[in-house]
């Protein structure tokens, strides 16, 4: 029998080298844990920053186009008002006939839209009342007119009649856009009336001149207009004031019925009917056909409208499309989906070549006789 002797191997003694190696191993494990922890923190931080940025973009997208409008500045300043010392404004003791709750002021014309916006006709309002109410706000009105190329010849009559009939007794800033600043007449203005000349590019085609108005008005609102006025009225230069035009035309967004279409059916309106254009209006939509020769609104209201119209014009250009009636087509498209808060009757745009209408008690803003082809070319 063979005996096998088992030799037991004793564990070698624990040396200093082993101690060092163990310490290093522990430290490496701790370092790896710390590294993983820092990675997790960085990932969480990146996620938090991304979520925060997305949230801010969403919030900014919901803000109004202009953050530094006059009304916003006033809202801040009003916090410092001593309301105890502020007197309540009231109307003077006016004398006028009692209004009736049962009888319409006029029955020969429509005076109210389905969305409860008034349609302004002579005899449907008391100007003394609304004028006194308007005075309480100490507002300023801007009148914007474009006189480019041959249209500059209409400026003297436009400004002369505006001084006679437009916003009499109120603070007015005239903004004349022209490529010929030297041709702007130096007329004598009444107290609190100011004339500003703004240089404008003379595009070759009259269609481009017309469509560029939306961009020009939009840009100058954010650069200048909002600092100086509360309301804007935009008018064609080849017109003249023929009777008083006052604060009855002012509201958030105001449009004027086209004199050739105020009594026609929807299917006869010259809307843009081609689906390829941004100004497209379906055949079963639309209320009235408005003329872009005279419209008004608050500075913010006009800013929003011109921004949308100009964006539509730019998109059409990229597609090689031009709306049938240029900026007026985009203007009407906007008003289908953003109803005007007040509508002006054809009293505020009329052409005497169309003759007289019994329903027109006044002709406040009328076309100047001209040869359109000669002026536009």
Structure write-up:
The protein has 377 residues and is of the alpha/beta class. 36% of the residues lie in helices and 14% in strands. It has eight helices and ten strands. The chain has helices spanning 16-62, 70-77, 127-135, 155-165, 206-228, 299-318, 326-337, 372-376, and strands at 119-120, 140-147, 171-178, 193-199, 231-236, 239-241, 253-257, 290-298, 342-344, 365-367. The strands form two sheets. Strands 1-9-7-8-5-2-3-4 form an eight-stranded mixed sheet. Helix 5 (206-228) packs antiparallel against helix 6 (299-318) and helix 6 packs across helix 7. Mean pLDDT is 85; it is low at 1-11, 61-65 and 73-79.
Topology:
Blueprint: H1 16-62, H2 70-77, E1 119-120, H3 127-135, E2 140-147, H4 155-165, E3 171-178, E4 193-199, H5 206-228, E5 231-236, E6 239-241, E7 253-257, E8 290-298, H6 299-318, H7 326-337, E9 342-344, E10 365-367, H8 372-376
Parallel strand pairs: 1-9, 2-3, 2-5, 3-4, 7-9
Antiparallel strand pairs: 5-8, 6-10, 7-8
């Amino acid at each position: 029998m063979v005996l096998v002797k088992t030799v037991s191997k004793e564990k070698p003694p624990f040396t200093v080298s082993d101690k060092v190696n163990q310490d290093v191993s522990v430290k490496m494990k701790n370092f790896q844990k710390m590294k993983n922890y820092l990675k997790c923190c960085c990932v969480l931080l990146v996620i938090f920053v991304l979520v925060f940025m997305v949230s801010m973009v969403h919030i900014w997208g919901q803000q109004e186009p202009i953050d530094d409008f006059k009304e916003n500045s006033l809202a801040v300043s009003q916090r410092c008002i001593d309301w105890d010392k502020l007197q309540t404004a009231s109307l003077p003791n006016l004398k006028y006939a009692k209004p009736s709750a049962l009888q319409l002021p006029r029955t020969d014309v429509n005076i109210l839209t389905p969305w409860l916006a008034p349609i302004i006709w002579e005899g449907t309002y008391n100007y003394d009342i609304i004028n006194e109410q308007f005075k309480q706000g100490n507002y300023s009105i801007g009148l914007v007119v474009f006189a480019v190329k041959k249209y500059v010849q209409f400026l003297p009559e436009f400004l002369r009649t505006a001084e006679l009939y437009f916003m009499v007794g109120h603070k007015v800033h005239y903004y004349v856009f022209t490529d010929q600043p030297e041709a702007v007449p130096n007329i004598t203005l009444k107290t609190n009336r100011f004339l500003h000349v703004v240089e404008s590019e003379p595009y070759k085609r009259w269609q481009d001149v017309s469509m560029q108005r939306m961009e020009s008005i939009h840009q100058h609102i954010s650069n200048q207009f909002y600092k100086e006025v509360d309301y804007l009225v935009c008018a064609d230069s080849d017109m003249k004031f023929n009777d008083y035009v006052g604060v009855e035309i002012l509201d958030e967004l105001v449009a004027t019925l086209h004199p050739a279409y105020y009594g026609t059916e929807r299917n006869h309106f010259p809307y843009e009917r081609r689906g390829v254009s941004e100004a497209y209006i379906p055949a079963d939509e639309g209320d009235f056909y408005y003329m872009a020769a005279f419209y008004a609104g608050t500075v913010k209201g006009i800013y929003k409208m011109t921004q949308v119209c100009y964006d539509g014009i730019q998109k059409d250009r990229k597609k090689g499309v031009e709306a049938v009636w240029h900026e007026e087509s985009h203007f009407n498209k906007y008003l289908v989906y953003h109803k005007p808060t007040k509508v002006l009757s054809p009293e505020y745009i009329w052409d005497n070549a169309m003759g007289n209408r019994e329903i027109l008690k006044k002709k406040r803003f009328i076309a100047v006789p001209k040869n359109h082809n000669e002026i536009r070319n």
